[in-house]
Amino acid sequence: MSGFTVEVEAYGWVVCKDGEAVTKAVSNKWRAGEKRDALEHAARMKERNCLRCATPFMSEGAHHRMCNGCRQSVRTMFEGAV
Ligand SMILES: [Zn+2]
Predict the structure, then answer these.
(1) Which structural domain, as residue segments, surrounds residue 11?
(2) pLDDT reading at 1 higher than 70
(3) In a 3-state reduction of DSSP, which class is residue 40?
(4) Do 53 and 69 lie in a common domain?
(5) How far does the centroid of ligand 1 lie from the alpha carbon of residue 35, in Å?
């Protein structure tokens, strides 16, 4: 849990973290939920060094250890092996 919540206030729905609104108000809860999901996703991202080429990149989590370039070339390698 990263602590983002969707709350209703005077001007519409907002995403809050630690009781503070972190987005502008939107007109419906569904839109605010989408913003919260995006913020939670961003909060999980963390800079790591690529396991393959050591380039720093933004990792989406423990399963994500290679930069996009290396992920692409590994995928190409596997496809080539079939
Ligand atoms: Zn890499």
Answers:
(1) 4-44
(2) no
(3) helix
(4) yes
(5) 30
**Predicted pLDDT of residue 24:** 94
Task: Give me the residue label for tokens 């596997």.
Answer: 78
Residues 38 and 52 in one domain: no
Reduced to 3 states, what is the DSSP secondary structure of residue 26?
strand
Ligand 1 centre to CA of 74 (Å) is 10
47 Cα to the center of ligand 1, angstroms:
13
Express each pLDDT in 5-52 by its tens digit. Answer: 999 998 899 999 998 999 999 999 999 999 999 999 888 899 999 999
Measured in Å, residue 51 CA sits from the centre of ligand 1 at 7
Confidence check: pLDDT of 78 > 60: yes
Total number of domains in the chain: 2
Say if residue 10 is in the same domain as residue 33.
Answer: yes
> In one letter, which amino acid is 76?
T
Say yes or no: 27 and 59 in one domain: no
Residue 55: helix, strand or coil by DSSP?
A: coil
